[in-house]
Structure formats: C-alpha cells, structure tokens
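Predict structure. Chain length: 452.
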Amino acid sequence: MGGGFYGADVEQLRQLATTMRTAGRKLDAQRLALNGGVAGTPWPGPDAEVFRQEWKSVHSRSLGAVVTLLQQAAEDLTRQADEQQSASAAGGASAMPSLPGVERLPEPRPEDLEGKSAADIRAWWLGLSSSQQEAFIRNHPQLVGNTNGIPFDARIQANRHNAQDRIDWLRNNDPEPQLNPWILDSSYPARFAEQHEEWRKRQDGIGYFQQVVDGKVQLAAYDPGNHSIVELKGTYDENTTTIITYVPGTLSNEASFYDGRGPQAIPGHLVKADTSGGTAAFVYKGSEFPDGGPVEAFLDEAKSDEFVAASAPVLAAFQKAVDLELPPQAQTVGIGHSWGARNVTGSEMEGASYNKVLALSGAAMRPGWTPTPGTDYASYTYPDILLTAEANGLVGENYPMREPAFEKHIYAPPGGITVGELYSIDNHKLIATTDPENEKALDDIEEKISGR
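Prediction complete.
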C-alpha cells in the first residue's frame, strides 16, 4: 500500500460524506418549510384535518427519518475515511513508523461517547491527541458543541462551525415569504404578517452568528433543534474565581440573544464589574422555555410543574459539566430571572448544586423543593405583577419572597409605590436590566456575589 494508495480514495469518501451531510440539511429545511405550508394553507373541513394529521404523524416523520439516515451515513463515511487513512499510514513503513513502547491511539468515533457520564467523556476527550481532537471537532461539530463533558473551549470551537452552518442555511434555504394576492381568506393577511415576522427574526441571526464565527461571541452550546443556545461571557479557565449560570425567564428564545442586550445584560454587567477578571458567566437557554403565545407561556407553561420537570434535568446536567472544570476555591452562582429561578431551583432537585442562588423576581419553586444545606439564597424584586399574583396564590405558594431560606430585597419602583405598580410588567423586567433605575439592586447583587 505504498505510493500513497489507500483501500479507498479517502478524499472522495470525505467529499461524499460532505455531500450527504449537506443533502440532509437541505432535506430537513424542505421538511420544515413543508410543515409550515401544510399548517398555514387555508383549507377548512374534515379532509384538511385528516391530511394535516397524516402529514404530521406519517409523512413528516418519514422525511425526518431520511434526514437522520443521511447524517448517519455521512458519519459512517467520515469514520471509514479516517480508518482507511490510519490503516494505510500504519501499513506503510515510510508513512508512520511504529516507535518502540508507543501505542497508537484508536481513532475516536461518535459511538465512543454513548453511555458515558460527563466525567467519563471528559477523561476520554483529554486522552485524545490534539490532532484527533481537531479532526473530531471538524467532522462532528454538532456533537462536540453540545456534549456535556467535552471541555468548553472545544465546544466553543465546534460551535463556530455550527454557527457557519446556520448562516449558510439562513442565506440559502430560508427564502422570504411572499404575499399571495390570490388568497382571499380574511385571516390570511394576519397569518402572513406573522410568518414574515418569524422569518425576519430568523434572518436577524445572521449578524449574531457571524460574530460567533469571528470569535467575538462564544457559544458553549447551540442546537436549535433542541431549543438550545448557551453563551459564555468572559473567560472560564484556571483563573476563574466565580462562575455564574444565568437563566433568563419566560418568553426567552434564540432571537432574544441576537442583539446582545437581552438575557446577556445582567451576566455581562457582572463579568465586567469584576475588575480582577475572575468572573465568567454562562447565559443559559439549554432547552425549551415558556415561549409560546403570551397566554400559553405565562398561564400554562411557566406555572406548569411538568414543564419545569422536563427542563430542570437538562440544566442540572449542564451544571455538572460546569463543575467538572471548576478551579479549586472557585464559587458557583445560579441566577434566575422570573421563570428562570424556577428552573434553577428545579435543577437543585435534579442534583445540581450552587454556592449561591439568586432569584430576580423569581417564580415559585416546584412542590417538594427544599433549600440545599450550605447554599446561600437571596431574592431581589420590585412590586410587580408576578409578586402580586404569587401573594394571591395564583401562581404557586412556595416562592422566593415567602420562602424563609431566601434573604429578601424589595425595591421602590421608579414610579413610586402606587396600586398600578403592583401590577406592573415593566417592574418585572426592570430587575433583570442594567438600567440606571436598577442601580441599587445591581449593587446589592454584586455585593452578594463578591462577599463570599
């Protein structure tokens, strides 16, 4: 097998893998577009409902299965190319001679991660050579960028690839919806306006993801199919003394990250406020949040024990991955705004631990929650609509401003203490901003974090 000959043409195998991977992404984009078309096309009556149900339960799932097969085939081809190249190099005396006492590491495969804990995955990753790590990131960026246990610097590198893939999809597979003047249904203009606004929000992501590709924004996770996006503010390394996991509240979605001033405002401020450079913060949305329509989000999902029971284990698993890289003597701080506090305390019930937990106008904890011994709890709020609803028993009873474990801070709103302020949504938002009106609360939060 001399002269550079392999059992297969390695480069062609890699090209075929790339073609299959691209075809899978395009087919999935078409599937999503067709899903929208089937759901949005005006067609009343029982036949329409039968068709829509059949499409959703049979045809769309079949297309999704083909997408999965294409992605798996691409991974198989990539692995075969790696094995061919490795075997040929080992078989050619001049290509890579064996050294006495040196054992060549087996080529890593996605299957190597199956069934492993985050700690085991971290040990596996650190056992790879740097060239193997680079190749694995290049060939499997989605897996690397979203797997707990793989070091965050590698995840950030992989998510630069994933961000470029997202940009390519947005530019090539997400055409602007066009108004159809022949549709006479009276509800069509409103539906079209909604579709166009959703498209515009997706397209707004191009600028954000270009910052990711350029290294100006760090994504510790990005998996839109699982509603996951996690941004790292600051540097998480051996010099970190405080690592914050900040969980925003109801209505947070991917688009809320795009301008850099949404859920990033408080954690970004706290990172900059530490002039020693020892604070880093994860801005966490690692699963589906209550982000449907306002009625569904606030009155159903946000108060649902089942909803947070599904999201809390995902946060707990992420936090355990954070702990794997925690330097000695560094502290962990969980901060949740509104429903985000419900998610943070829910993660405690799933095994996550924090040195400090801070609730910003925090929602009620799940039934059965108890404070973790040794954890320092504090709550910060203005009179607002959530606090009023909680005080009247409308959205749970076990909320931070009633729970004895929480040190309590309540602030006079900018408009003064009036009846209207008790129902203010603006006050509910204010506590999670860096507005000058919120300066006293920010100072107290900084003092709580730095006070050790």
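Summary: Residues 109 and 432 are 42 Å apart (CA to CA).
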